[in-house]
Amino acid sequence: MKLLYFAWVRERLGKQEEELTPPEEVRTVADLLAWLRERDEAHAAALADENVLRVAVDQQHADFDTPVTGAREVAFFPPVTGG
What we know:
Strand 3 (54-57) and strand 4 (60-62) form a beta hairpin. The chain has a single domain, classed as Roll (Ubiquitin-like (UB roll)), CATH 3.10.20. The mean pLDDT is 94. The longest helix has 11 residues, at 29-39. It is globular, with a radius of gyration of 12 Å. 29% of the residues lie in helices and 23% in strands. The protein has helices at 7-13, 29-39, 41-46, and strands spanning 2-5, 17-19, 54-57, 60-62, 73-77. By secondary structure, the chain is α+β, with helices and mostly antiparallel strands. Strands 2-1-5-3-4 form a five-stranded mixed sheet.
């Protein structure tokens, strides 16, 4: 699975993407976030507050209960505002 990071999420992690194979028990975006936070301190800090994170699964905006099983790409980014 390709993980993409945008804006300050990318800056805090020091990378814009990575390829990972989550364990079988990672079934939703929330599970993926929990697993990533356990990997290292950088992921724990960058992904700590779900209130300031948005996610897309295979380029479709998603909620934290969205399944990631079989997903090819998951992107994390801050909320976007505009006029």
